[in-house]
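Subject: sequence -> structure tokens, single chain

Hey, anyone have a minute? Need the predicted structure for the following. Not urgent.
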Amino acid sequence: MSHRTTSRFLLLAAAVLFSTGGAAIKAATVTGWQVACFRSGIAALAILAIVPGARRGWRPRMALAGLTYAATLILFVLANRLTTAANTIFLQSTAPLYLLIIGPLLLKEPVKRSDIIFAGAVGVGLSLFFFAREHTAATAPDPFTGNLLALISGVTWAGVVASLRWLGRGTRDAAAASATVVVGNLMAFGISLPMALPISSVSASDVGVLLYLGMFQVGLAYWCMTRGLRHVPAFEAATLMLIEPVLNPVWAWLVHGERPATLAIAGGSIILASTLVSTWRKSRA
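Reply:
Had a minute. Here:
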């Protein structure tokens, strides 16, 4: 197979692995803080082991990006334990909306007319979540709080993207992003550890879930993504990675029977479609 075909398969594999996060997080019987803590700790070790670039290029400037990434990791886990997997991933996908605010303020990036149209479309999708009638369930015991945490994770994810842009200015060292991912996971582990202790009991199935989340859902997925991005154009890569938010609620439905509200699905679809169109327009420009 050509390098581009192999890269496409790697990006697809990364998207599928990332998409299993919601269902796997809900499968653990330990607390959300414990999942966030040990998932990140295992992921940091896995990425250090399989991504050589993550072992070099460490510098103090990574602290900001690492901290915002750590917050995103923790919020994603806690939100998944309280609301549906669909709501969590769709609300986190509103990050580009906040980048339109962060970009001009911190990065001096201009806002174009097409960006404002995109922001309006995302805002419409986001508003549907507030009109959706959410029902509590075993896998979504507190939808309101979970939705709020997921919404905040969208803000912190926008902070991660902005921080990586700032970190990458003036350098072509691609290892900085990999090292930042490790720093963020280590920070998430350290921040979550006090809330994760004490550990009364952990079943064999919980150990399996945590190992899967750290080694495969994060570690192997990140390796596939970094390898796949080498030979695939940006728009095609972004399109392939959109499989993650599409499949995320599907796995939660298949494994846990979780059914998000109709308006939430509609809102998420608008957000994803708007992101796809915006990425396509920018790639053509």
